Each structure stands twice: as C-alpha cells, then as structure tokens.
Amino acid sequence: MAKQSINQELAKNRAPKSVAADSLSKQSTIVTLQNSIGNRAVQHLLVQRQENDEYADEAYGIMNSSMDPQLRLQLLVKAQNRRLAKQGVPPVGLGKVKDSKNLGEGDSKDWELDLNTSAMNTSTPAGRADVADTVGHEGEHLRQWYEMARLQAGLQRPKGPLNRIPDDVAGMATLNPILESNEQTYQVEQWYESVYGSGAQHREQVLGDTENRYEEYRALPEERDGWARGDEITGRFKELEDMAARPRKRRR
C-alpha cells in the first residue's frame, strides 16, 4: 500500500457498520498498515486519530452552544491547542483572515489561525462542522510547519521554515530536533520534500492554478493530510448529529 493512502484507509472506518463489522474492518486496516509501514508508525497514526476525535468532540459541544460567536472561535482555538500540545507543538493564536474569500488559513509567520467570521455560517449543522473542520485543517498545517522546522534543525537541511516562523517557535523546534529519518517521521519527510525539496516547483505550479488542478492540490502531501484531519472532524460531527437525533427510549 502506498504511504499516501494511509489516511484515506483509516478514514474508511467512518462508514456506518455494525459493531462487529466495524471492529473487523479496523483490525484488517491496522494489519494492512502494519505490514506496509511498521508498528510504530501505525501506533503514531492511531494516537493522532484519537487526539483528533477528542478535539472534534469538544468542538461539537462548543459549536452547538449558545455562546457568543467570537467566544466560540476562541474556545475552538484553545481546543485545537490542546490537541497540538499533546504532539509537542507550541500554542497558536487567533487572528483575522486577510483574504475574504477564505474561511480560514494557518499563518506560520505570525503563528496563528486566521479565521474569517463573515464567511462562516453557523446556523446549520454543516456550517458548524465546517468551522470546526477549518480550525482542525489549518491547525494541522501549523503542526506540519513545526515538524518540518524540527527536521531542518536536526538533519541540517539547508532550506526550511526555521527563518519563516516566530523566533520562540523556531527555538522550541531547535531544542527538540528530529535527529533521524525513520518510520515515524516519514510523514514529515513527505511534507518537507513537497514544500522545500524535490516537489517544491510542482507545488508552486499547482497552488498557482488550484481551480484547474484541484485534484493535484488535494494530493499534495501536506494538503492530503490536512484534508484528512478535517474529514475526520466532519465525520465525527455527523456521528454526533445522528446520535443526537435518535429517539431515546423511555424508562418504565
């Protein structure tokens, strides 16, 4: 199995199944991945998935509350920071998006999640999930940039984000470098090659024409994994919406 299909393979387990079928499907997926990339890498991915689900559960409660919209965004970013902290990533701030066409973006230069409140529709379940998805997706991008900075620091790569992120964040990456390339760091290697290495020129061309090269854009390693995190959040929101809609049995 190609490494690029790992997140898609894990995501298949979101399809509705019986408990027994769901368990067998997950076991089959895990065995396939273990044979492909090794036990340590699979465990690392499963931990990431669990932490993302925890964020989604917290985000669902926040987005379905009656709190002020700005307060909800602040709490969403705090919830995302709890996920990032478990992976050793410095906390990110909340900023305002500079491009009115975007719902949000991760700003590695200022180390913040820039969100566009005017473009958000939180009056529908899909709209609320989209906001939580955006925070998760863009938060994942900032995690990627931090991990690439660690890789640059540890493996002495000439190019990288160390001089493009805040000094305190770069300092933390330098103090916690990636010192070897192994099965647990293959994702970081893929991101680095896409952004700064052999795939950089291709990436620039695709990002310059995403309207006509959308599938290529989604296939970029950093985007593929960012979208996977967002899709997991949207899937979890749908599960929780379905659970809330089920009629409760009355006690006799």
Largest sheet: 3 strands, mixed
Number of strands: 3
In total, the number of domains comes to 1
> Order of helices and strands, N to C?
HHHHEEEHHHHHH
> Rough shape?
globular
Q: What is the CA-CA span between the terminal residues?
A: 52 Å
Strand order of the largest sheet: 1-3-2
Count of DSSP H/I helices: 10
How confident is the prediction overall: mean pLDDT?
83
Strand content: under 5%
What structural category characterises the helix and strand content?
mainly alpha
Which percent bin holds the helix content?
55-70%
Low-confidence stretches: 1-27
User: From the alpha-carbon coordinates, what is the Rg to the nearest angstrom?
Assistant: 19 Å
Summarize the structure.
The protein has 252 residues and is mainly α.
Can you describe what's shown?
By secondary structure, the protein is mainly alpha-helical. The chain has ten helices and three strands, in the order ααααβββαααααα. It has one domain. Mean pLDDT is 83; it is low at 1-27.
